[in-house]
Amino acid sequence: MGQRDNIKPSSAADQPSLNNDDELTVTDPVEPPSEAGVDPAGYSEKGGGATQTGFDHARELAEKAKSQKGRLLKQRFVLEDVLGEGGMGLVYKARDLRKVEAEDRNPYIALKVLGQQFKNHPQAFVSLQQEAVKSQKLAHPNIVTVHDFDRDDDTIFMTMELLKGDALDALLKLEAPFSKEVAMRYFRDLCAGLEYAHKRDLVHSDFKPGNIFVTTGGTVKILDFGIARAANKNALSHDFDVADLGALTPAYATVEMVNREAPSFSDDIYALACVLYLMLTGEHPYQRKSAYDAQQAKLKPARPEGLNNREWQALSAALSTEKSKRPASIAQFRESMMPPASRRGALKSVAAVVILALGAAAWLGYQQYEAQQAEAAAVNARLKAAEDCFFVQDYSCTIENTLVLKNLAPDNTEAQKLLQLAQNAQAKLARETMVNSRLAEARECLSSGDFSCARVKLQEVLKSQPDHAEAKVLLEQSEQRSAQARVGTILARAEDCLDSANFSCVQQALTDAQEQGAVAADLYPVQRRLDNLLAEREQASKEQGAAIARLLSESERCLQQGDHNCSEAKLSEVLELDALNTRAIEMKQSIATARQQAQFNQQTVARFLQEAERCLERKDYSCTIARSESALAIIPEHGPAQAMIRKAEAAQNKAKMNISIQ
C-alpha cells in the first residue's frame, strides 16, 4: 500500500529525512487527511442569521479570526480546517471574505501555506510566483484550478479551487488493487491532464498519488501542478533546486531527477507508470525505491495480473529506469496502453475490418475522426452543463464551464456569448444584491441613530448608482438628522458649562452650534440662562466690592488704635471674599511687622526696668530714674516704668529729710 508524505513545515525541528521506504517523512507523522483543495465532508453552511448581510458577516468573521493569530491572511482569507499535509506545506479549507461579502453560496477555497524550509529560501518566492502564473493558465477538467499566489508578511500561500472527494493515496489504502476498468479510466484522465500541461511546456515533477484527487463525481484531477517544477534548478534563471527543500518524492523520482538534471516530460511519464502499477497491483513497482536505487539494485517489477502482452510491454517500457527506453510522450504511452480499439470495445471488430480494408493510412484517418468526435462530445457536454447552470441562474457554474470550454474550443461562439451573458448577469445581480442590502442596512442605521453608518452605506449605493432616488432622499435625511444630533450634543455641553459657571466654555459651545447650523430658537434657552447668570454675577461682584471696602476701613481704624487683633480679623474677612486682594495682603504684612516690633520693645523695656530695680536696691535713685525714663522713651506712658520713677523719687525725698546739719 502506498504511503503518503507527512511533513509538518510549521516547526523548524521537523526537518525531512529519508525513511526505510525512501519517502520523505518526519517523526510522529500526522494521520493524513485529504490532499490539497479537498473538503471530504462537503462545503460548510454559511454562518450568521438569515437577515445578516454579506458585509456584516464578513466583518464578523474577520474580527473573530484576528483574535486568533495566524488565522486571517491578507485581511481576506479565514483559515478553518486543515485538509492535508504534504512535502511543501499545509493545506487549509479557507473562507474567502470577498465571496462572503457578495453572499456567494459557496465562499470556500483551498489554501496552501508553504512550509518553513521552503518559504525561507531566498529565491523560492520569485520562482514560485512565476510558475504560479503559468499554473493559472491550466484550465483543464483534469487539473485543479489555481486562483492566485501571494504572501502575507512572511507567510507564502497559494489559493485554489476546493474539491469534494478523496485523494488517490487514500483510495489506494482502502481499495487497492483497483479493477482494471477503474485503473484504466483513471489512467486515461491522468494522461489527458498531463498531456495538456506538457503541450504548454509544463512538467509536474512531483507526480504521485498524494497529488491526484478523485472527485465525488468520478473526475480525476491533478494537484500541485508546477510547484515542484518551479523549484527545479533549470526551471528558471534562479539557482534553486527542489531537492534543497526536500520536496522531491524519491518513490516516484527518475534517475535524472535524483541527479538533479533538467526536468523532462519523461519524469512525469515514469511517475504516471508507477501510479498505474500501484492502481493495478496495490504495490509499488520498485518497493518504494527511487529509480536510481532500483537501477543500482537491478530490481525488475513483476507483471500485474490481467494485462496482456502488449499492455505489459507498454507499462514496463514506461517503468524503465533508463530514460531512452521510456515512451517519448504521454500520448505515445496512452496509445500503447489503450489503443483506440481497446478504448471502444464495441468497435473492435469494425476496427479490424477497417484496418484490413483500408490499410494503415485509412485507419489513421479514422483515429483522427474518432478523436474529433470525442472532443466534440466533451465540448457539447460542457456547453449543455453551462446552459443548464445559466437557466437556474447559477452564473458562477456557467462561467466555470464556459472558461473550460474557452480552452477546449477557443472559437466556440456560443460559449463566448454564454460567458459574456453570465458575467454580465452575475455582475448585475451582484450590484442589485449589494444595493438592496446597503439600503436595508442604511434604514437600520437611521432607526438606531447611527448616522455615520447610514452615510457610508448610502454613499456606497450612490457610487454604484449615482441617480438612485431613494438613496439620495435617505442620505439627505441622514445628514439633517446628523446635524440636529450634533447641535443637541453641543448644546448639552453648553448646559454643563453653565452648571460649572464656565462662561468661556459656554460661548465657545454656542459658536460651535451656530457653525453646525443651529438657529436662534435652538440657542435661546442657553443664551437666556447665560445672560441671567452674568447679571447675577455682576450684582454679586458689586456687593462684594462694597463689603471689602467697609472691612478695609474698619481694619485701618483698629490698626491706628493699636488693636492688631481687631485689624487682623477684619483683613481675614476681606481675604475670604477676595483671596487676592492686594490691600488686605499688604496690611496683614504690616501688622505682622508691627507685632514683631512691639515684642522687641517689650523685651527692651523689661531689661531697663530690671536695671532700674537693681539701682533702687543700691539706693542709687538717679540711676533708677534714668533707666525708667529710657523705658518710657520706648513705650510712652508705660505704667511699671512710671511707677518705678515715682518710687525712686519718694525714696530720694525721704533720704533728704533724714539728713541733719551738724
Automatic annotation (TrEMBL):
Segments for region (Disordered): 1-53
Name of the molecule in the record: Serine/threonine protein kinase
Lineage: Bacteria, Pseudomonadati, Pseudomonadota, Gammaproteobacteria, Cellvibrionales
Top-level taxon of the source organism: Bacteria
PANTHER family: MITOGEN-ACTIVATED PROTEIN KINASE KINASE KINASE 20-RELATED, SERINE_THREONINE-PROTEIN KINASE NEKL-3
Keywords assigned: ATP-binding, Coiled coil, Kinase, Nucleotide-binding, Serine/threonine-protein kinase, Transferase
Molecular function, one GO term: ATP binding
UniProt-listed CDD domains: STKc_PknB_like (cd14014)
Record's compositionally biased regions (Polar residues): 8-19
Domain Protein kinase: 77-338
